[in-house]
Amino acid sequence: MTEPQTPPPETPAKGTSNKLIAIIVIIVIIATVVPITLFLLLQPPPPTDGDNPPPAVPPAGQFIGVYDITDNSATVRFGQFSYDPAPVWVKIVMETSTLSGSYNFPSNSDGVTLTHHGLDIGTIVYRDYADDQLISAGDELLLSGLSASSDYTVKLVWVATGDLIDSIGFSTTA
């Protein structure tokens, strides 16, 4: 008489082990992504007022255009920034082919005339249309007292480091 054969041990189906691996991978991804996302979302925004020192890293931002150009005036409009800086954290440098003048914001207020250092190439008035005491998209620099038929470059410079944030050029009419 032969002994009854014992059946081989059952092995899990291949589909079951693949599902288990997929679930483990998903759990690992979620366990990694969620804390990083929460960390980034819970970071406090950089200080955005002139009473605090500026952040060490300037915002990414730009001018979006020059409008209403005449023989002695123009309007420069700000675009988006990675965070809206306080005006006192930046300075404006206005240049022609032979002259250069530096202009500081005396305060964060709307309608303030910037004070010049070095050559006085023209007058710059800051318009804070959001009235939030921050440079944000749509705010403008009103330039006047410019020379006719001249090429100008307007630069936005981070005061703390001297880094150039953006520049834009234009020509006044004859």
Please provide a written account of the structure.
This protein is of the alpha+beta class and 174 residues long. The protein is 16% helix and 33% strand. Strands 5-4-3-8-9 form a 5-stranded antiparallel sheet, with no helix packed on it. A hairpin with a 5-residue loop joins strand 1 and strand 2. The radius of gyration is 30 Å and the shape is rod-shaped.
Brief synopsis:
The protein has 174 residues and is of the alpha+beta class. The chain has 1 helix and 9 strands, in the order αβββββββββ.
Q: Give the uncertain stretches in residue-range form.
A: none
Distance between the termini: 118 Å
**Reading side by side through the largest sheet, how are the strands ordered?**
5-4-3-8-9
Decide which structural class fits the backbone. Answer: alpha+beta
CATH architecture classification of the domain at 61-171:
Sandwich
Helix proportion: 10-25%
CATH class descriptor name of the domain at 61-171: Mainly Beta
Radius of gyration based on Cα positions: 30 Å
How would a textbook summarize the main sheet? 5 strands, antiparallel
Q: What string, H for helix and E for strand, traces the elements in order?
A: HEEEEEEEEE
**Using DSSP, what is the number of strands?**
9
Q: Would you tell me which CATH topology of the domain at 61-171 applies?
A: Immunoglobulin-like
CATH superfamily of the domain at 61-171: Immunoglobulins
Strand percentage lies at 25-35%
Looking at the structure, what is the overall shape?
rod-shaped
Number of helices: 1
Average pLDDT figure = 87
